[in-house]
Amino acid sequence: MIELKDVTKEYSKGVAALNGVSVKIEQGEFVFIVGDSGSGKSTLIKLIMKELDPTSGTIIVNGQNLNRMKHRHIPKYRRGLGVVFQDFRLLKDRNIYENIAFAQRVVETPTRVMKKKVPAALSLVGLAQKYKMFPKELSGGEQQRVAIARAIVNEPSILLADEPTGNLDPTNSWEIMQLLEEANQRGTTVLVVTHNQEIVNEMQKRVITMKKGVIVSDEKKGGYINED
Q1: Is residue 53 part of a domain?
Q2: Considering the domain boundaries, does residue 116 fall inside one?
């Protein structure tokens, strides 16, 4: 469960990226977060990741009050999150197997377990036969599949995806969204920040629309609202 209570985040000169945002996302939900550039979407994700701290307000994730979390506990907290970025962020000098195994080593997964979980994650994203290849040898869509495999290999309760289809063509975009949908069906809470109106309208999930740091719409089964 993710809950923000009256959260404000101000950057320099008192400019508020978020202004009094309150929202609750229950375990197992699939939620799109949409809005124009500068609406506060990325700030919201960074607050949930504990990359930023709120200027005021409270953030609770899976029963943990992030405001009170000690710095030394942040790495462990983040290991419980799966994160997918627009630019993939794969380790270029390691093959696909090693990229995913790296996420397992961070949480000190035993080697015998890793040898089962990494191939299983690759199978889920349809890349079981390409485990020896390096990122540069894969297409953009395949690289994003690897990023998703890395995000789900530790079976996180929450998966955050920041513009996961931003660099992909329509066909690959739909395939990536299908993988996120499958992760959600296995019980993972999924939050997707996106500008892709077609995907949002077609999938009919909960849609939170942001504008200038506030939530202007929260529809349980909605579409993309253009707030121009």
Answers
A1: yes
A2: yes
